[in-house]
Amino acid sequence: MATLLGFDFGTKKIGVAVGQTVTGTASALTTLRHRGHKPDWVAIESLIREWRPEAAVLGLPHNMDDSEEETLAAPVRRFARQLTGRFGIPVHLVDERLTTLTAERALREQGWGKGRGRRSTDELDAYAAKLILETWLGDAGR
User: Fold this and answer.
1) Do residues 129 and 12 touch, judged by C-beta distance below 8 A?
2) What's the farthest any 2 CA atoms get from each other in the chain?
3) Cα 77 to Cα 41, 107, 134, distances in angstroms
4) CA–CA distances in Å: residue 113 to residues 79, 98, 109, 134
5) Distance (Å, rounded) from C-alpha 59 to C-alpha 10?
6) What are all long-range contacts of 79-85, with beta carbons under 8 Å and residues at least 24 apart?
7) Element (H, E) at 56
8) Are the beta carbons of 7 and 15 closer than 8 angstroms?
9) What CATH number does domain 3-139 carry, 3.30.420.140, 3.40.50.2300, 3.40.50.10090, 3.40.50.150?
10) pLDDT tens-place string over residues 79-126
11) What is the spatial distance between Cα 18 and Cα 88, in angstroms, rounded to a whole number?
12) Kind of pairing, strands 3-9 and 55-60?
């Protein structure tokens, strides 16, 4: 059984999820805000120490024509290199096309955005990370 962390990287926030290869499922954990236009490395290190993942899975944005989305692909790849360099864990990139839309639909079915049950966009980012990780787990045949 391997534990993995999933990341939905954005320029201001990073959604985080945790999952296992045994079950092939993931759970949304949290959303971290950037500090000084950089990832919150202290919070990321804390999550890595707590969960001790064997690897990380990071969503790589693609356009509908299968090309990488130019604006975010480079920062995502840089974040992937930094995760490996800082923590020595392998990082797997997975196509995150339509992940946020899918996450929003799933959360709305659970009552997200309705009155007292309103959830923040932070929950959306963490749920998107969950979907990214589950996509990789499914594609990896685990």
Assistant:
1) no
2) 43
3) 16, 28, 20
4) 30, 19, 10, 24
5) 10
6) 79/7, 79/9, 79/14, 79/39, 80/56, 82/39, 83/7, 83/44, 83/56, 83/58
7) strand 55-60
8) yes
9) 3.30.420.140
10) 999 999 999 999 999 988 777 777 777 777 776 665 534 457 778 889
11) 18
12) parallel
What pTM was computed for the model?
Answer: 0.84
The Cα 53–Cα 36 span in angstroms is 26
| Type of residue found at 102 | T
Q: Fill in the amino acid letter for 119.
A: R
Rounded Cα–Cα distance for residues 120 and 118 (Å): 7
